[in-house]
Amino acid sequence: MRRNPASTVANLPHTEFPSPLYSGKSIKQTDPSSLKPEQTIRSAVECKGVGLHSGAPVTLRILPARAGSGIVFRRTDLDGFEVEAIGRNVARVSYATSLMKKGVLISTTEHLLSAFIGVGIDNAIVELDNLELPILDGSARPFVDLIRSAGVRAQKRPRTYLRILRDVELREGDKFIGVYPAESYSVSYSINFPHPLIGREKFAVNLSEGNYFGDIAPARTFGSREDEQKMRNMGLIRGASRDNCVVLTKDGIENPPLRFSDEFVRHKVLDLIGDLALLGKQILGSVVADRAGHAMHTALVSRLLRDSSLWEETTLEEELITVGARATAAAALR
Ligand SMILES: [Zn+2]
Fold first, then answer.
1. Residue 108 CA to ligand 1 centre (angstroms)
2. Which CATH number do you get for residue 88?
3. What is the Å distance from ligand 1's center to 45 Cα?
4. Are 149 and 171 within one domain?
5. CB–CB of 163/312 below 8 Å?
6. Pick the catalytic residue: 53, 111, 267, 294?
7. Which residues neighbour ligand 1 (ion) by CB within 5 Å?
8. Most buried among 32, 189, 208, 235, using CB within 10 Å?
9. Where do the H-state alpha helices sit in 151-277?
10. Is 267 annotated in the active site?
11. Is the Cβ–Cβ distance between 23 and 8 less than 8 Å?
12. Angle at Cα 180 formed by Cα 31 and Cα 109, nearest 5°?
């Protein structure tokens, strides 16, 4: 006897993913425990450092958070005021990405948010006792190490991804960023920086293949000695030192060795991943950027959040399940 699809849906422990197609054999495949779960960290971890731009000393503490809560920053120096790491709270974006809510600032969020995507952390509370995250060594590696030292815990809720459905392209002069439908998250970035060590660099990476740790996380931020005074006059890079960024001179670098010969473009990929984390979900799509920066990255976030016809929310195995359910339904009709 055929089972009534409606009643089998009602029997599912989770009712978030029912589809009219679910029936018979597909029930096993819709078991939410077979879907990729959201993750948080196992225990609280802490580090100290200075903000790259403010130079302000800061203690950062990462705490586990409940499923579905996302990444939330908390200013312990301002009565625990919370600012969610989502596109709506993006504020000033120039040499770093900052969030602001009701006048409360969280500055330079991109390296930690990038590390969260790289490790696969969906939910965490990030406490800060100052306005800017610590720059540490200028890369995401210390954050990755910190998160790994805390341990990763799977949660009882399937992770939803933001699957890109249509091409989205933004241009501004010679800067470009686009995102295209794909079954995994990949990034291809090009830069063209007038420096003998850089010039035109391009780096492409598929993040679904575990390449983040070795290829992206260690790449450090960089700046030139030439621009230093101009940036300091703008109130920037007050915490910069040879220990937390690659310092470019006219024809070389002050603090060799580089970690990769193309460390610069890899760092741009790191930044992009951190900025796109402000979508609040991991992407299934292929991102292409050329000479973009934080402003273009976050413009793409805004564009996507403004138009929900450009994407759909999905669990990683949902398509397989739908295909399975269709096959079952077709067999039942024969
Ligand atoms: Zn950066």
1. 8
2. 3.30.230.20
3. 22
4. no
5. yes
6. 294
7. 221, 271
8. 189
9. 228-233, 263-276
10. no
11. yes
12. 80
In a domain, 25, yes or no: no
Give the distance (Å) from ligand 1 centre to CA of residue 129: 21
* Residue 172 neighbours by CB under 8 Å, 6+ apart: 296
102 and 189 part of one domain:
no
Report the alpha-carbon distance of residue 287 to residue 117 in Å, rounded.
Answer: 15
- N- to C-terminal Cα distance for the chain? 14
Q: What is the pLDDT of residues 138-194, one digit of tens each?
A: 999 999 999 999 999 999 999 999 999 999 999 999 999 999 999 999 999 999 999
218 and 124 together in one domain? no
Question: What's the pLDDT at 316?
Answer: 84
- Binned average pLDDT, 10 residues per bin, the chain of 334 residues: 36 34 40 84 98 96 98 98 97 89 96 98 98 98 98 96 98 97 97 93 94 97 92 92 95 96 97 98 97 96 97 77 43 42
In a domain, 19, yes or no: no
Residue 30 lies in a domain: no
138/200 same-domain check: no
Domain of residue 243: give its range.
161-314
